[in-house]
Amino acid sequence: MTLASTSELPRPILENPDPKALAAEIVKALRYRVGKDGSVATQFDWLTASILVVRDRIIDHWVKATKEAYDEGAKRVYYLSLEFLIGRLMRDAFTNLGMMESMRDALGSLGVELDVISALEPDAALGNGGLGRLAACFMESMATVDVPAHGYGIRYVNGMFRQEIHDGWQVELPETWLDHGNPWEFERRERSFEVGFGGTVESITTKDGRLERHVWRPQERILAVAYDTPVVGWRGNRVNTLRLWSGMPVDPILLDTFNAGDHIGALRESNKADALSRVLYPADSSPAGQELRLRQEYFFSTASLQDIIQRHLSQYGELHSLPDKAAIHLNDTHPAVAVAELLRLLMDVHGIDFDAAWDITKRTFAYTNHTLLPEALESWPVPLFERLLPRHMQIVYAINAQILLEARAKADFDGEQISRISLIEENGERRVRMGNLAFAGSHSINGVSALHTELMKETVFADLHQLYPDRINNKTNGITPRRWLIQCNPGLTGLIREAIGDRFLDDINALKDLDTLADDASFREKFAGVKRANKERLASLVLERQGIKVDPSAMFDIQIKRIHEYKRQLLNIIEAVALYDQIRSHPERDWMPRVKFFGGKAAPSYHNAKLIIKLANDVAKVINRDPAVGGLLKIVFVPNYNVSTAEIMMPAADLSEQISTAGMEASGTGNMKFALNGALTIGTLDGANVEIKEQVGDDNIFIFGLTTEEVAERRAEGYNPRAVIESSPELSQALAAISSGVFSPDDPNRYRELMSGLYDHDWFMVAADFDAYAAAQRQVDAVWRNSPEWHAKAIHNVARMGWFSSDRTIRQYANEIWNVPA
User: Which residues, renumbered to this chain, carry the PTM N6-(pyridoxal phosphate)lysine (predicted)?
Assistant: First the structure.
């Protein structure tokens, strides 16, 4: 059974319309809203018409939910995130409204295949990795559990980039997802707010010389214009708003300058505004790139706060009640400047004194930290910050003075501790620490896994935690089961419904009823059949896009995530080289066929990450062409990894690679998606792997490597990677092969420096964990050899993943941080 029978789902809140009537609506939308007759309509036209028909139904619920929240005076959640990796929205909306089969039948009667047109919908280029996908899951779950919410971000025209692989190298191209328009969004010109940069600050005093207020007079002015996208909860329970800001110039063209002959100069204001919402994460390796990043962060933060304040004032007429009616959540440090901006708006625009404004600010904001990597805790050079945001620099100093006084008075901090909690980094270049600013300005600071939260207390925020011991709490991440099971894996969804009924569709914890079926041979066989079909779909995709043929009966071993040294794609590749050597050296052994899939983007300025992509492709080129391997091992790097690709790869995975250096991955959500779709995890005790292990049981996961404590001990004791490498024949042989040019005959020295780095420092413990990782992979082989045992373990994984629903996470946020009912 598949979701081809979703008409059997319990009726959604929205009435499921008759397919014949729906077909008539689609034809009408095609003619009057797209402007096409069915005889000449393209597949894109049918896609747009189909979306518009369903969107009309969504709007009714959207307007109703918004009005009810206003009339009831409900507290709203405002989620500020630089990324919302929402992917394609059509299937999401159709599924959540229970209209998938009605739309399929309606389109079929018109000679249009829903699956064909849905594949034409572009992925919204609004994010890059786990942080953005988490924000998207959270938005869907807030609508599902009935939390009134707005998401705020930037409407990127080109997003991160579209990744192509040319001769094994990553090539970055513009992501043109808006070329055909976006039928889901609504432009809100009336919700436009002015954003300033630079200029001067004037102190206004009373007649007797007392300071009355400050007035910031920006040198540059830009408009932020709102674009709204409705976010539909499961069964249409609630529709919330994703509001994205686009930059527009106050003066589109300097006409005098244009008429004087300086045609390029006349458009400089327009170009500056356009750049703000053009690209996600512009490379910050140059001063210009750093400046654009800071501009973007302030741009969307101030527009969002001005919008929130205007909405609050229109309803309540004053701002002292803001914390009671608005919960503003900072998704990582990107919107941290909002802390200083809210203070500026409260004090300079609305006349509230510092102490009251600071109290309002702290009670309104909450902050999620997503990293323990110092370089990912943003900081900005003081001269840059002061030049772009002079009033905010003054406010940062005022906040800092308050905190440092508290530290000395309450905790008797010494000079070193004072230096660490200061909002200003004084060692070397003076920089504004955005993580410290977000912490200081929030009443709640949460980690995203149990391990990560404890490490926050011990590392990056140890001193701030000592000063404010009640603020840090844990909210382990989750994923929406609608997108990551019901929608992306209809075969498994149908099988589960056949086996245990429909209750899990509304209560994902009901998946635990599958546990007893792991010992049922008939169910295991059906489960294996679903997995096989998903693997065949991925194999077809790889053959079509890349011309690589893979065997669906082989183990599909998948590592898909942002390319970064701490995520250790390099460890996986080196082990593949070692395995390649072993297969060739010992052909008499009973090797298990395996296909290793990689996918992910490297930041454009991250040299080693881009080199790792090239290495994966170089290794693939050699191994995949070697007849001595006999198809026992293949390597595939899937280009332009995004949400839609993940929706195909997650259900097809047998083995999920979650092998980051212990203590460095905050949580992970890919690990949850894989396990929910019946993959076994091989991983370190890092991030949410720890909690996944607790949920699925020690026998149903492959854990290896150093723990967080052991990593810290090795580094403290003076870890010698060279000795470790020389004591491991498999590792030393693999490194020698890579370093000597076996996989790069066109440039034998290409990987010499990358490999020598493992000998010299190996900060990410690749060598330290290699032997344990290789041994764990052979344990994987042993279990894979016994297919009933493998499938039983996979079923246990699916059955025990209900706790990792983002619905559970959002309810915890709502009850324990935001103080809203859920």
Answer: 673
